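To illustrate this point, what follows is a protein record of this kind.

___
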Amino acid sequence: MLHNVTTKSLYDQRRSLLAWAVSLVLLVAMYVAIWPSIRDQPAMSDFLNSMPPAMRSLFAMSGADMSTPIGYVKIEMLSLMAPLLVLLYAVTTGAAAVAGEEDQHTLDMLLANPVSRGRVLMEKLAAMTAGIVLLAGVTAAALLIESPMADMSLPMGPIIAAMIHLALLATVFGTLAAAIGAATGNLTAARAVPAVVAVIAYIVNGLGPQVSWLEPFQKFSPFYQYAGHDPLVNGLSVPAVLVAVGTVAVLAVIGVTGFRRRDAAA
């Protein structure tokens, strides 16, 4: 009999989580290996500075110096690639929490156990969050362990702060996917809607400083909570953490309420 949905979900993800972790370690290794060929190339910084302001803002290039380890990691890895990979894991896992079970016709077996719908969803979210934290932790460890091999000096505090904000960003969109899946049972919607929202949020945050009519909406973007205060330079932002945690809590309540109210297909 199933006693703990969280541990069972993590056990089922063990192979995929290992694959995601190895992928992130290799991604970090690739960027670390490229660093020596970038740091002594002023032409690269000149090229980035010559790009249109909107483009630099969109890809977090404004104010970043590619000739420094922090600026290089910020532009090359943490502006797009790392969030993209961790968000892919979060959205696919969140969508599979309920809608995936329903699509595979295993939800009836899960709900036949002595656990409420609310507990099922919350424990699925706990497993997803644990996976996200693991991947963010692996990324932080890879950066701190591999960077000295290329003579990159990365401060531990800001790297950990950036990974905390990355984990919260992924948790927001993963919870959105889980809430949509739980409330509708539609796996396609649970995957597609968070993906579209993430693209829109990324654009709003990136172009907000450059496009006047987008600027009022920038601070509502989860990507603003992720990187708006530049955690690689300024460390952890408590207000941004609180906003992200509050967003996750609201989405979880919506998901639980929707799951409880509908007639789930077997």
